[in-house]
Specification:
Blueprint lengths: L2 H25 L5 H7 L10 H24 L1 H20 L4 H29 L2 H15 L1 H16 L3 H21 L14 H12 L2 H31 L6 H26 L1 H25 L6 H27 L6 H24 L7 H23 L10
């Protein structure tokens, strides 16, 4: 192994860890949602979902802040500040004595997590572009996907030895490790001469350039729609697996199996994207996902919303594989025209994606009625929405942007 390759792999691992703070903050506590809701006296059965959506709300707002800041101060200071807030929010949640305090702490934690999540994407854009960028992001996602596979199980193990408060303390410890690695082991990727002054005018000008680009907006919206279906899934997974299907402590096992499908897709995508291109792979995967979900929705309705568990798992595994081919490619396609303003673009894309996902996922999640109909209908409807906006983006793509991607 050459030194250049070793350094590259260390960078991929660091970016994956920074990305993973978001996933760990969500997936590790899924087995504990019922306990949290009970201990803190949540209002309704579906209120437990707010422990997740509050985090996403903070993440959505935070992404608008950290990107522009990182364009001005450099990537490392913005990430360090974000991890610091993440730690504060995590400690607040671990000490929460009321449901309201928990929600506020989760918003702060999400706002902090936006720093490492969004700025690390800008770091990748600083160093790579085009298909190479998509390949790096696919490797990052392949490592990152181990978190959803393992985190619910880790959360379940922690619950065997203590209560849900220990999960938040474990998140604080992980964030501290990431902070040390970022501070000592990673060089700054945005040199002084490429930084932009932190003032409203250049930020608004860059934001306008980002928003008016149909490719960037189309693929950002599409990512939001697909991710919205996943927020609905995350919010209702504990209820579906543990309560509707009665899996109890086996919930993390089946959750991890589905997460593995996305990881497999990310690895497959990393191999195929250099050969076939991002657009072709994404278009095929999205169309297949839409047909699959629409067909399964009809079957689920005929079965009264309670398909056999094996059938539900097969559908979700295949659906997650198709979706796994989309995430890395869509992010790369949205960022591709934004090389000069990667920080602001990353912030706007990430915030828009999270906002769309938060609104769609929260609305559909609150429709949970003890059946899987809302979830499957959400995947079908939001997949069709993603198909519509990507087709619009491609029809309006500037001719100069037509590349081999």
């Amino acid at each position: 192994m050459t030194e250049k390759f070793a350094v590259s792999m260390r960078f991929v691992a660091l970016v994956a860890l920074l990305f993973s703070l978001v996933a760990m903050s969500i997936d590790s506590m899924l087995p504990a949602l019922g306990q949290i809701a009970s201990d803190l006296h949540a209002y309704t059965a579906n209120s437990r979902q707010h422990v997740l959506t509050a985090f996403f709300a903070g993440l959505t707002v935070g992404q608008l802040v950290y990107g522009p800041v990182s364009d001005s101060t450099g990537r490392k200071p913005a990430i360090v500040a974000g991890i610091g807030l993440f730690v504060v929010g995590g400690l607040m949640c671990s000490l929460a004595a009321s449901y309201e305090t928990m929600i506020v702490g989760r918003v702060i934690q999400g706002f902090g997590a936006a720093g490492p999540r969004i700025v690390s994407a800008a770091m990748v854009r600083d160093l790579y572009e085009g298909r190479a960028m998509a390949r790096v992001m696919s490797f990052v996602m392949a490592i990152f996907i181990l978190v959803p596979i393992l985190a619910p199980g880790i959360g379940q193990v922690i619950l065997l030895f203590g209560d849900w408060r220990l999960i938040f303390l474990a998140l604080v410890a992980t964030a501290t490790l990431a902070l040390a690695w970022m501070t000592v082991g990673q060089r700054e990727t945005l040199p002084q001469e490429r930084r932009s002054p932190f003032s409203a005018k250049p930020i608004l000008r860059a934001a306008h350039e980002c928003i008016r680009n149909p490719v960037t907006m189309g693929y950002a919206m599409a990512t939001g729609f697909i991710f919205g279906a996943f927020i609905c899934y995350l919010g209702t997974a504990q209820q579906i697996f543990q309560e509707q299907y009665g899996l109890g402590r086996l919930f993390p096992v089946y959750f991890g199996m589905l997460a593995a499908s996305i990881g497999i897709a990310s690895i497959v995508n990393a191999r195929l994207v250099m050969r076939f291109g991002m657009r072709r792979l994404s278009k095929l995967a999205l169309r297949a996902a839409c047909v699959l979900s629409a067909g399964f929705l009809v079957l689920v309705v005929l079965l009264g919303g309670h398909p056999p568990f094996w059938m539900f798992m097969v559908y979700m595994f295949v659906n997650f594989f198709f979706c796994g081919l989309l995430f890395g490619n869509y992010n790369a396609l949205a960022m591709e025209p934004m090389g000069r303003i990667a920080g602001v673009a990353s912030a706007i894309i990430g915030s828009l994606t999270s906002l769309v996902a938060l609104v769609c996922g929260t609305i559909i999640g609150q429709l949970y009625d003890g059946t899987v109909i809302p979830l499957v209908a959400g995947f079908a409807a939001l997949g069709i929405c993603a198909l519509a906006v990507t087709e619009w983006a491609e029809r309006n793509r500037p001719s100069a942007a037509h590349t081999a991607a």
